[in-house]
Amino acid sequence: MFKLLKTAGPLLLSLLLIVPLAACGKEEVQTVRVAEVTRSIFYAPQYVALAKGFFKEEGLKVDLKTTWGGDKTMTALLSNGADVALVGSETSIYVYARGSSDPVINFAQLTQTDGTFLVSREKIDNFTWDQLKGKTFLGQRKGGMPQMAGEFVLKKHGIDPKSDLKLIQNVDFANVPSAFASGTGDFVQLFEPTASIFEKEGKGYIVASFGAESGHVPYTTFMAKQSFMKKNKEAVDKFTRAIYKAQKWVDSHSAKETAETIKPFFKDTDPKLIETVISRYKEQGSFATDPILDEKEWKNLQNIMGEAGELPKEVSHDILVNTEIAKKAIK
């Protein structure tokens, strides 16, 4: 018996040493539940972060679900159905204005321009904005960032959305393309890839970009409730670092490489079309190259909301935006 213990002793000692070391070396993986407002090529850096394993590198598992609409996305966040929301920054202002005791904080910007395009039913070789006067314009949902940016651009070009054209904005977000395809409106405001698909199929023609016209704005950001951010500071830091890695990757790689990377998230979309859309967004600087939401962009957001009559109250940048996390991520 003693001889057996003497022989097995070194082996047992080795196992006793290895097991604690292995346990110490294994970092716990935290799951972060993300609700995205829609599934869109516009959010390419997010899908790159997932496909390239940037979240995994940070010790995070991201559970992504599409909630289809700003209201539904914020409901998921506020009811603890999600930890992080990817949605327009205006929603955080709406929540704050209602007197929330647990405000929603913007901590990482993903897109920095509007992502919609003006599509005409008829082909126009030399488009000018005054050609919308007297026409029927099928816009986006009232109070949403696409519609507010759309009205801002119209006013910028001397067009009163209420009197110079027939403005339709009571069609649900998901049904706008089908409404236009069925004959509603002379012009429509569409996201990609629908705008390019319509052009390819001869259903409409892209004549202008609302993103190029409205300037830099925190169009889509990652946000979370203040309580979640306080309890999960490290996870939010890791999440932001992963997003920044993806932003740098998209910025330094071609539209084709990015399209190939995010293709699994758009299985029913022609890869060539994905490339075209990414190229268009890159050309107009829609993808933020870092996650910092600066004060100038925040002011532009509130200017656009104010012009549309949708700003419930002005909120200073430091109340609903945390830039320290993003600044830390890029160091």
UniProtKB/TrEMBL annotation:
Keywords: Signal
Matching Gene3D superfamilies: Periplasmic binding protein-like II
Record keyword Cytoplasm present: no
GO cellular component: periplasmic space
Presence of the UniProt keyword Signal in the record: yes
UniProt signal peptide: 1-25
Localization per Swiss-Prot or TrEMBL: Periplasm
Superkingdom as given in the UniProt entry: Bacteria
UniProt record similarity statement: Belongs to the bacterial solute-binding protein SsuA/TauA family.
Protein name: ABC transporter substrate-binding protein
UniProt organism field: Mesobacillus zeae
